[in-house]
Amino acid sequence: MIEPTVYELSSPGRHGPLLPALDVPAAPLPDAAFLRPADALPLPELSELDVVRHFVRLSQKNMSIDTTFYPLGSCTMKYNPKVNEKAASLPGFTNLHPLQDAEMTQGAMQLLFELQVYLAEISGFAAVTLQPAAGAHGELTGVLIMRKYHLDRGDAKRVKILVPDSAHGTNPATTSMAGLQVVELPSDPRGNVDLEALKAALDDTVAGLMLTNPNTLGLFEEHVLEVTRLVHEAGGLVYGDGANLNAIIGVAKPGQLGIDVMHFNLHKTFSTPHGGGGPGAGPVAVVEALAPFLPGPLVAVEKVEQDGPYLAGPLADEEEHDHDHDGYRLIWHTPSKSIGRVRSYWGSFGVLVRAYTYIRMHGPEGLRRIAENAVLNANYLKARLLAEGSYPVAYAERTCMHEFVAQGILEGAPDVHTMDIAKRLMDYNFHPPTVYFPLIVKEALMIEPTETESKETLDAFADALIQIAQEAREQPELLKDAPHTAPMKRLDEVRAARELILCRC
Question: Which of 379, 385, 377, 355 is nearest to 450 (CA)?
Answer without folding.
Answer: 377
